[in-house]
Amino acid sequence: MSQTIKIFAVCVIAFAITSSVFAAETAFQASLTPDAAIYPKTAKIEGLTLSIWGNNPQTSIALGIVNGTSGDSKGVSIGFANYGQNYTGIQLGFANADDNLKGIQIGVICSTKKTSSGIQIGLLNFIKENKWFSNFPNELAPFMILVNWRILD
To answer: pTM for this structure?
Structure first.
């Protein structure tokens, strides 16, 4: 009997958490391209994004071939290519690019113009604003293989 009550309690808690997430007007986005999507590319998505090629401001999990984010976005992007403007979170893909990364990029090619707190793990890693070992260990270099970072206090 107590096992049934525990399972019921977990289900009620999970329902309460997910219903508040999915109650938002833009909790789910699906797109073939940024212009062929359920919501326009200006709508903020807070939940789940599934796309062939998507591009929205978001606080979500983005799964697709090309995941684009605009403005201040955060979450997890998993796809062949991920790009953004001001992304906080994890980008996991063959190619990852961002203007101002705060988080982690994992892939073959990882690139960001700047970061105040970011780590890149990949074959080719670019952080444009880094200088060659000028502030080691807080930052490494503008280009490194395998790993690169910038972490400021």
So the answer is: 0.78
Instruction: Round to whole Å and give the CA distance between 60 and 27.
Output: 8
| SS3 at position 45 | strand
Q: Alpha-carbon distance 89 to 59, whole Å?
A: 10
**Which of 95, 87, 31, 85 is closest to 60 using CA atoms?**
87
Alpha helices in the chain (DSSP H): 2-22
Helix (H) or strand (E) holding 17: helix 2-22
The type of residue at 79 is: G
CA dist 83 and 95 (Å) reads 8
Tell me: the pLDDT tens digits for 111-120?
Answer: 999 888 999 9
CB atoms within 10 A of CB 123: 11
- Domain map of the chain by residue range? 29-151
